[in-house]
Amino acid sequence: MNEIKSLFGSMVFNEEVMRERLPKDVYLALKKTMAQGTHLKLEVANPVANAMKNWALEKGATHYTHWFQPMTGITAEKHDSFISLNGDGKALTEFSGRELVRGEPDASSLPSGGLRATFEARGYTAWDPTSYAFIKDRTLCIPTAFCSYSGQALDKKTPLLRSMEALDTQAKRILKLFGNKGVKRVFSTVGSEQEYFLIDREMWLKRLDLICCGRTLFGARPPKGQEMDDHYFGAIKPRVSAFMKELDEELWKLGVPAKTEHNETAPGQHELAPIYETTNIATDHNQITMELMKSIATKHGLACLLHEKPFEGVNGSGKHNNWSLSTDKGTNLLEPGDTPYDNLQFLLLLVAVIKAVDDYQDLLRASVASAGNDHRLGGNEAPPAVISIFLGEELTEILEAIENGCMYHSKEKTDMQIGASVLPHFPKDVTDRNRTSPFAFTGNKFEFRMLGSASSIAEPNIVLNTIVAESLSGFADILEVSKNFDKDLTDIIRNTIREHKRIIFNGNNYSGQWAKEAERRGLLNLSTTVDAIPYFIHPKNIALFEKHGVFTETELHSRYEIMLENYCKTIYIEAITLLDMVNKGVIPSVIKYQNELAGLICRKKEIGNLPSVLEENLLSRISALSQSLDKWIYELERSVKTAKTNGNLLEAARYYCDTILKKMRQLRIVVDELEANIGVEYWAYPTYADMLYSVN
C-alpha cells in the first residue's frame, strides 16, 4: 500500500507539490483559477513556471512541451529544452510564465477542415490549468488547448472545456431553484473502461494490415475462438500480467487512477478501467493510457491493438463512457437516494438526460462514428446503431407512475438467497443490468457503450454535456419565472416523460424485434458513419452548439470535413494495403501450392496411374478460387482508381462505403477460403490462431 501511495502522482505537478513549492498567494490564485475557471494572470504564471521548472529538473526532465489533442485522434507535442545561454555562452535553465501559458506550433500541418491553409501556419497552444502538468520520458508535459491564429478551436480539449462551462451554467440555475445556493461549480465526471488486444509483436510485424490499418483485412476463422467463454475473467497469463503491472505503475506515477483490469471475452482481449474523474482530466488520462499501452507493450515483446475490430468473428473492442454529474461539494447529482420517487431534484435531472438523448440521438450517434467503429456497432458484443436508454425496472415504474398520476410503492430490498449458509448475505439490487443497451443508467451514472476503443472520449462528452445543458436551460427558463413552483416542476417531469418515453427500452437491443420496434417509435437507425456524420451540420445542431458557445458554425463544418476525410483515407489505406498483401503474399502462396499439387499429380501418373482424386479435387477447388481472386483484385483496383477524395467529400465517403468496402469484403471471402485450403507451411502470413493464442 505504501508503495502505491508513493508512486501515485509522483511525476505530476499536483496540488500537493504546488502547495509545497508556491508562495501562498500564488497558490491561492492558481487554485481559484482551477476551481472557478477564471483567467490566469501573467504575474501568477511566472512564479508557477519557475517552480514547475525546478521541480521538473529535480525529476530528471530536460525538456518541456505543450501537450495537446489535435483532430488526429492522438496527442501532439513539440519539445523545447530548458536551456538558454547567457552573455558568456554558458548554459542556463529558464522557463517563463509566457512559455508556460502559450506556445506556437504549426497549425497548417494538422487537420483543420479548411480552417488553415498551408501558407497559414500560425497556431497557439494555451495552458489548461485545470489539468495537472506531468513528466513523461524526461519531458515536462503541459496540457494545453490548441487554436488557430483567428481563435477557432483546432483540438478536442477546447470545445470540451466550453461544453463543461455550458453544463455548469445551466445546472447551477437548476440547483439554485432547489435551494442549493452554496454550489459554486457543477461538472460532469467520467470513467472510461478501455478494451484492447495484446498479441506477440513478432506476429504483428508480419502483418502489414495490422501495422498500417490496426486490423486484419483477411484471415480464416480459427478452430476455436471465444465459443467456450473461457477467456473472460480467466487467469491472466504471465506476460500479460507483467505488462499490466508495469502499465499500472507508469499510470499511477502520472496520476491516472487505474483501478480494474481483467481478461475480456475474446482470446487475447483485455480491459482496464479507472476511477471516475472530472471529464477533461479523464479525457487527458485516457489519451495517456492508450499511448502507454502501446509503448509498454513493445517493451514486453507485445503489440497492443486498439482498433475497434482487429479480428473478424470475435469480439471487437469498445470504450464504455460512464458519465455523471457532480458538484464542488462532492455530491453526485445522479444519485437517486433511498426514495427516488420523492427526490424531485434527481427526477428533474433524470428526465433532462432522457429528453437530451431523445432530442439529440443523431448527435450522440455521430459523436462515436468512425470507419473502425462501423465494424463493431450492431455486433453482439456492442450496442446497435439505434440509440435507446435503459433505466431498469424500478426507475421505469417510477416514471410510469408519475406520468399516470399514480402513487408509487417502493419495493423492499431483499437479501440474495444463494443457498449456502456459509456465504455472506448482501442486499439484492432492485434492478438488473443490461449490457446490450447503448445508454444505460447503472445506479448513479449513465454508461454510454457505443464508443470505439481507439477514439478520444472528448467528442461524445462534448455532446453529452451540451445536450444536457440544453435540457436544463429549457427547464430553468420555465421554473425561474414560475408562480407555482411545485406544480410547474411536476408538470415538467410528467410532460417530459410523456414526450420522450419512446427512447426508453429495457429489453434486448440485439433482437430483430427491437429494430422493428425502434423504427415504429421513430428512432433513428444510422448504421454507418456516412449516415451519421451529416447530422453534425444539421441546422438544429448548429443552433444548439452556437447557443451554448461550444462550437461556431465554422468549427462544426471543419469537423464535419475532417471526419469525412478521415473516413475516406482510412478505407483507401485499407484497400491499398489489402491489394498489396494479396499481390505480394497471397498470390505467391497460391501459385506455390498449386505447382506442388500439379507436380504431385504428374508424378503419380508417371509412376503408374496411381489414383490422385484428392489432389485433383483440391487443385480444381484452388484453381476456381484463384480465378475468383483475380476477378476481385481487378474489381477493387478499378474502384480505388475511380474513387475521389477531393471535391464533394460526402459523395466520396458514400462511394468508399457502398462500393470499395463491399469489394474488399468480396476479396476477403476468397482469400479466407484460400487460406483454409492451402497448407500452413505455404501461407505467407500468421493465421488467426497464431495471433490470438500467441501470448503465453
**Structural class estimated from helices and strands:** alpha+beta
Helical percentage? 40-55%
Distance between the termini: 29 Å
> Mean pLDDT, as a whole number?
90
User: How is the main sheet built?
Assistant: 9 strands, mixed
Give me the CATH architecture of the domain at 2-155, please.
Roll
Task: Report on the architecture of this protein.
The structure is a single chain. The protein is an alpha+beta fold and about 700 residues long. Among the domains are: about 150 residues, Glutamine synthetase, N-terminal domain (Ubiquitin-like (UB roll), Roll); about 120 residues, Glutamine synthetase/guanido kinase, catalytic domain (Creatine Kinase, Chain A, domain 2, 2-Layer Sandwich), CATH 3.30.590.10; about 130 residues, Four Helix Bundle (Hemerythrin (Met), subunit A). It is built from 22 helices and 17 strands. The strands form 3 sheets. Strands 9, 10, 11, 12, 13, 14, 15, 16 and 17 form a 9-stranded mixed β-sheet that branches. Strands 1, 2, 5, 6, 7 and 8 form a 6-stranded mixed β-sheet that branches. Helix 9 packs across helix 10, helix 11 packs across helix 14 and helix 19 packs parallel to helix 21. The longest helix has about 55 residues. The protein starts with a helix and ends with a helix. The mean pLDDT is about 90.
